[in-house]
User: Fold this.
Amino acid sequence: MLLTIRSLTKTFPGTLALDDVRFDLAAGEVHALLGENGAGKSTLIKCLTGAYRPDAGEITLDGAVVAPRSTGEAQELGIGTVYQEVNLLPNLTVAQNLCFGREPRRFGLVSSRGMKAMAEGMLDGYGLDIDVSRDLGTYSVAIQQIVAIARAVALSGKVLILDEPTASLDAREVEMLFDVVRGLRAQGLGIVFVSHFLDQVFDLSDRVTVLRNGRHIVTEDIAALDRVRLIEHMLGHALEDEVEARNAGHVEARRPPMLHFEGMARRGVIEGFDLEVGQGEVVGLAGLLGSGRTESAELLFGLRAATAGTARDQEGPLTLDSPRAAIRAGFGFAPEDRKTDGIVADLSVRENIALALQARRGWARPIPRAEQQRLAEMYIERLDIRTSDAEKAVGDLSGGNQQKVVLARWLAMNPRFLILDEPTRGIDVGAHAEILRLIHQLTDEGMSVLLISSELDELIAVSDRVIVVRDRRHVAELTGAGISTETIVHAIAQHARKDGEAA
Amino acid sequence: MNPRLLPLYATIAIFLVACVICYIQFPYMLSTRVLGNLLTDNAYLGIVAVGMTVVILSGGIDLSVGSVIAFSGVFIAVMLRDTGLPAPVVFVLLLIVTTAFGAAMGGLIHGLAMPPFIVTLAGMFLARGAAYMLTIDSVPIDDPFYEMLRKAYYLMPGKGRLTLIGMVMLLSFAVGMVIAHRTRFGASVYALGGGENTARLMGVQVGRTTVGIYAFSGFMAGLSGIVFSVYTGSGYPLATVGTELTAIAAVVIGGTLLTGGSGFVFGTFIGVMTMGLIQTYIVFDGTLSSWWTKIVIGGLLLLFIVLQKGLLRLTSARFSGGLA
Assistant:
């Protein structure tokens, strides 16, 4: 084995990002690393490239134990990385980018002719016919990716990590990139390939390792895997008994309808869909990353303007052209990335909870301090937010408690329809269960919830209905006993299989 | 054509147009005499603009240079008056002080991760205050060596005088060009301007480079202070107020992107010359108020900001469009 990782563990405050993970990479192999958001892929890669120091575990490269402390050190050891956003400088020429830090010099000054020759030598064999003395930024992303690969290979030359390299390439460019990668594999490089495009994984890889929730799930030859099983591995297995039992309890109840959405669509983002939400109902949105789950929610909340479609409730039509309008209609939206979209980390728990409510009242009618205090204490108790007091800055809380503050903030506005995008992302197991319990509690009180989640267990546990999104379309609706890991995975996989045939 | 060269070409084109306009109205303006004066009058500005170019290329800004020039003049004048040290020794001392001052600002910017704007703003007040501490009056410089420096010149064909300080400026630009375009330090400066995180990933020693950049600017401001004291023959703590802004204007008119990462030292030279030319034109005309200089410079600045914005659009459009 060229690279072996054993029992790698990394914790962040409130999260176990990597839990006893192992990984092997042989020379001359493309090894795909798969998992949904938050599965631990990026943490693993950052441990390899020296951006993070693991808490425990061992990385062995060519038989020697290594512990890179920086990207530079990892490069010297032989581990090079190419990221989704090209990490080169678009304002320098291709040659400058390739030779950076090793510029050939004459009389102490950088020789541009020597640099040009060196750069052309480095690009030799990559099938690129470009002028290296032009700015990198004038070339397409695909060419920039290949230049980045050429630099990484020249600098390190043993292990090449490709982190979502194809995310912004079109089909022809992907093929061009893959030809380069296959060439490098033939030269004996070990290549780690991270992607959430399953077709590309099946196209390029020799072996696959799946991570979920920071744990190693499976490593197998690609030939021994089919799509359905792979997706099962990524999204999680059958549910635990107790969850199933709880689910069975509220399967048949048909809720009085509350909201109707018809033909909601936005060109290029999501195809038209209808959605009916009953009072006290939990509607789950399932699908792979990038399938259009979040986009659907953003449309409903007015974060993206819909180009078509109507919304109405029992009283009449609703306009949802902006978040402000959606809030007025009694909607709430807790976004996926709470750190950037959901909370203000520097403000206290009390201030965060009061924030959205204040925004709705308008600045001219401040919420009295005592009222804020009462609200904050109520939600701290009700949601069991673990904080020393209401004045603690939210940024100092653990992930799960931050998520609860986001929830508290929306609950304080008393919405009738709450959209939760990956509410349990990056929080520990205990807090996870509490959030799910809380969703039940809220819907029992009559609130309706739209839950987006990558974790099937979670969706199955709390949803009354699950809508499967794939390829920017709502393709299946599962209800009652029809909701199971199998049915969801099959609905998702159908698309992948069809797509595979078309490609 | 490389789009990065476009602002430079635009700068040169505007300069040539300005020359033609001047020539049509006042044919005498295109003589070596006027050229000699142009170089002499703008020597201190040009030198400090070289340092400023490097700072702006790295994505930073140095607001302290105007005050440092004033401090330098006062420092030299007071030292020569009170200590009796020979002028060259005073020069070396001064350059050590201003370079260290710049390096310290660079260290703070990197070490405390502070915006350069704030740190050098503090530096600006500090240097101005230090100048006041030395004296509050204008101190004349009576030194035979100074007389010699002031009178040294090379007689160009057409009786134009290329003075010593003019030559120092030309030399500064030459050195600046080599440093920015032909050294690893220069490549690191461009890399920083392109993006600090990426630069770090590519192996730039960010701390060392940042300190180096501001030390270089401090050195250039000191050198500019020496030249300014030769030019005026005195040291005055209220001198060169706002020169940092004029220097920034020259850099931007010279086609350097204020956000860093793109531009040329030679462009700054053209920028300084363009601004000097406008001033000379107004002097030749005689009826225009000197405020017209500022108005024209303001207009040019605006033009360049719009031009750069357009260029950015153009390159990002290319960036997102298929294979180049």
